[in-house]
Design a protein that fits this description.
- Residues 89-137 form the Flagellar hook protein FlgE/F/G-like D1 domain.
- By secondary structure, this protein is an alpha+beta fold.
- It has 2 domains: 3-73 and 187-226, no CATH class; 79-183, no CATH class.
- It has 2 helices and 15 strands.
- Strands 8-7-11 form a 3-stranded antiparallel β-sheet, with no helix packed on it. The chain has a two-stranded antiparallel sheet with strand order 1-4. Strands 2-3 form a two-stranded antiparallel ribbon.
- A hairpin with a 2-residue loop joins strand 7 (96-100) and strand 8 (103-107).
- Helix 1 runs antiparallel to helix 2 (189-226).
- It starts with a helix and ends with a helix.
């Protein structure tokens, strides 16, 4: 089979993965505390081409591309003032902790609310935990003290969906809770759109390469088939 088809197809698959990542980032451009992802690509390897008659080196041929890893930019982003008493943000390093059905998870999204039992909950209804890792109880006036909400240092933070992270809590973090604020999303919409357009162009180039190779093979097959001995 024509090697070029595999090379072009691998490029298309890599760009599809990249586009899914960029689309997810764009969908969360307004999500408080969202952390943008990055993907790394590399070549499968290279093949050294040479002239079969003279042995002279012609050059190198890439064998296709692949996505090697996903990384998440966990750096803190600027805070936005909302003046909502249950909007909380971590100023600096650290994560809020919430109790989910799957266990304790961590988040930077502090758009919290009042639960039915008078506790502080996230947008999914998960109880927000205090420094003692117990649910935070709201005051009689429906507010919450910043010191009542835990901020934890988390090692190996990994996205688990719905703005939640898994990881290992290593005790209190250096960041502090700021009420009436939310952390901005980590997505730069303009930059991400430019990356998306570049990825689409790369995908289209690989698609055109496959079409050209297919037409060449079809033409060669027809010509060979029409030859008489």
């Amino acid at each position: 089979m024509e090697r070029g088809l595999y090379i072009a197809a691998s490029g298309m698959l890599s760009e599809l993965t990249r586009q899914n990542q960029l689309a997810n980032d764009l969908a969360n451009v307004s999500t408080a505390g969202y952390k943008a992802d990055r993907v790394s690509q590399r070549s499968f390897g290279e093949l050294l081409l040479s002239n079969t008659k003279t042995g002279e080196t012609i050059g190198r041929l890439g064998l296709g591309s692949e996505i090697t890893k996903f990384t998440t930019d966990l750096s803190a982003k600027p805070l936005k003032q909302t003046d909502e008493p249950l909007d909380l943000a971590v100023a600096g390093e650290g994560f809020f902790a919430v109790q989910t059905e799957a266990g304790v998870r961590f988040t930077r999204n502090g758009a919290f609310a009042s639960g039915a039992n008078g506790t502080l909950v996230d947008q999914l209804g998960n109880a927000v935990l205090g420094p003692d890792r117990r649910p935070v109880t709201l005051a009689a006036d429906g507010t919450v003290a910043s010191t009542a909400v835990g901020v934890f240092a988390v090692a190996n933070a990994t996205k688990a969906g719905d703005a939640l992270f898994t990881g290992t809590a290593g005790g209190p973090a250096t960041g502090s809770v700021k009420a009436g604020h939310l952390e901005g999303s980590g997505v730069d919409s303009a930059h991400t759109m430019i990356e998306m357009l570049g990825s689409l162009r790369a995908f289209e180039a690989s698609q055109r390469a496959i079409t050209t190779i297919d037409q060449t093979l079809q033409k060669a097959s027809n010509q060979v088939g029409s030859m008489t001995g």
